[in-house]
Amino acid sequence: MSVIKNEAVTASAPAKAFLFGEHFVVYGQPAIVLAIDKRANVTAQLRKDDRISISSSNLRIAGTFKGDKYQAQKGGAKARIKLEPAKSAVQQVLEKVGSKKTGVDVRISSNIPVSAGLGSSAAVATATVAAVGRLLDAELTRDQIFRMAYQSECLVHGTPSGIDPAISTYGGALQFQKNRDFIDLKVQTNVPLVIGNTKIERSTGELLAIIRRTRESLPSIVDLLMVAGARTALLAVDALRKGELKTVGELMNINHALLCAVGVSHESLERLVYAARNSGAFGAKLTGGGGCMIALAEQNRQKKVMKAIERAGGTVFEACKSDEGVRIES
Amino acid sequence: MSVIKNEAVTASAPAKAFLFGEHFVVYGQPAIVLAIDKRANVTAQLRKDDRISISSSNLRIAGTFKGDKYQAQKGGAKARIKLEPAKSAVQQVLEKVGSKKTGVDVRISSNIPVSAGLGSSAAVATATVAAVGRLLDAELTRDQIFRMAYQSECLVHGTPSGIDPAISTYGGALQFQKNRDFIDLKVQTNVPLVIGNTKIERSTGELLAIIRRTRESLPSIVDLLMVAGARTALLAVDALRKGELKTVGELMNINHALLCAVGVSHESLERLVYAARNSGAFGAKLTGGGGCMIALAEQNRQKKVMKAIERAGGTVFEACKSDEGVRIES
Fold first, then answer.
1. Dist CA A29 CA A211 (whole Å)
2. Does A274 fall in a domain?
3. Residues of chain B in Cβ contact (below 8 Å) with chain A
4. Can you give the pTM of this predicted structure?
5. Which of A123, A156, A186 is the last residue of a domain?
6. B328 inside domain
């Protein structure tokens, strides 16, 4: 695998955490998402040939694409699907700069838990676009990076909301509502979080189907719950801007209950959520469509909350809002 | 303790289970309560003297009242407060028939769990009124029995809603709303329940204070949750009348989440609730103001649900709607 020059460009992009609005966003309700200080790092380097080679050190998979062909290097043929978003991200930049025949090596190294609803795949796609863009002197704007990352997500995930690549691109705290522009909430205050993972993976599609069925059977109630959910999100925006974390926590607790009401929580998640609340978190709720929960806790309580979540069976890490979106590292 | 004649009258009255509306009923929302097939039995017998002697075999307490004086027989002086509602019930019947100087022995034997939000004390008061009324040939109507039992509850509990003595008196399924008459729902279908007890006692006052604080801090959301709660109750009335237990269960799950949203559930309750749902119950929720939960489950699933609740740490019993309110046993 000889490269034509020694230059390598590394870019990184943050993971996201849903603070409010997961699932309900599909029904037009507002969502509040934060970029968190877990990042995907992507290093891009030119190749002599016209292949796109992608490896992920944390997933322990690697393979090379040449046109439609895939040659597995690590993790077998089934790893291909996990490498597709990054490949698609590379291809879009190549198309943009008009050099489809350029070969690129992409090395992914991420500390974002996967299949956890934390936007790991979008962070990789976003960082890949940025790294390859810089490598090829494409001078991409943030908006262009977002759109390319979004396109590569679309190829893999159908038509996602765009929340994940948006937060990975712009960082900070964003409000999203269907068919509207993202709003940068310009939250100044620190948002100290503990994220717990049940490791129980559930597909977003399955969860959305549960909500759809509940809504079909009891529309007058579910619609009311969604209005209540929207209110928790909008009041939380206010509270975040004022730095009133206790109120944000209270709103998270209520929002979690609304998600329980439509049937998308489960026992393991509840255990972690209660562990966090009982150990002094301001509030706790499930986050995103995976098996993760998020707790808001003062920094001097975080260790206690983390221990409680671990005792309740979760893997756990600290996180906080990261105002930096995608960036070139070197 | 010699009695003047051998006649003894036994009456019994059922316990209640909140199916919908606990706590929210204070805010004017509808509540649905069921009489269940756990009963308090009260045997009344005349005494030679003018004392009121009361014993409870299940609580293992006993004492004798003479005017304002209390003489402990079992359980010490602190047992007095638990015997007061029955004493007050006796006194009201004596006043009604104009024989204040009559002495009565009252023996209570109940299989209703106490301090569990199942209306044990109201069932005792109701059965006491009925037994003493028959003993003294007072020919009390049901409405009179209800009012006297309610008065004796008021003496002890301030100004309760009257739900407990109403269901103990009339049996069946009742809808209650503040400042309105009880509505007999005339539910024909069987309502097979499993009731799990965490044995974690919490005062209703404490729980209502939590809701009050949440409502003060976030009125626009809590009011919406209460409207949603009312909708679950009213849709459940429809479903109960049609015998659609699956829908009732779904509504119970949502109603439980609304109670979680205002902060009155806790981890042990959640464990039992999820145990019931995961073992095939139509639905499960906390019930009343105590540490109990209630699951609606087809009769051929009840054993499985009971086992699951026990494994999750609860004590458990089967119950079903009892259409018989207070009655004379012998």
1. 14
2. yes
3. 214, 217-218, 220-221, 224-225, 227-228, 231-232, 235, 247, 250-251, 253-254, 256-258, 260-263, 266-267, 270-271, 274, 278
4. 0.92
5. A186
6. no
